Amino acid sequence: MTIKIAPRKFSLTMVSPEIRREKELHFVMLAVTICASPVKGPDRKGRPMKFIVNDMTCGHCRAAISEAVSEAGGTATIDLSRHEVAIEGLDQAKAEEVIRSAGYSPVPA
């Protein structure tokens, strides 16, 4: 049996048409679990993604971005005085999309 795993997809080649050994089934289930898992969390370096959002100027702006990130399944830590947004729980593309959909212009920090 051969299992090839790539992000969000895998291929499985079996010698026999049936999975007879428990170990083979375990590897198949592991491959499916890994490939089906959404890409979330901090960036690959283990830190939250940070963005500079210069057009975020007030408490309303902070609330709008925070709510949009939360609705998308992430969490935002916002420093209004530095115009900085740190996001966890979303990949970078999704995080940027969410901030833009709230009406702001993020720049990766």
Q: What would your notes on this structure say?
A:
With 109 residues, this protein is of the alpha+beta class. The protein has helices spanning 22-36, 59-71, 92-101, and strands spanning 2-6, 9-13, 49-52, 75-79, 84-88, 107-108. Strands 4-5-3-6 form a 4-stranded antiparallel β-sheet, covered by helices on one side. The protein has a two-stranded antiparallel ribbon with strand order 1-2. The model is unreliable at 39-45 (pLDDT under 50).
**What's the rounded overall pLDDT mean?**
77
Shape: elongated
Radius of gyration: 20 Å
Order of helices and strands: EEHEHEEHE
Work out the helicity level.
25-40%
Uncertain ranges: 39-45
Total number of strands: 6
> How much strand?
15-25%
The DSSP helix count reads 3
The strand line-up of the biggest sheet is 4-5-3-6
Structural class: alpha+beta
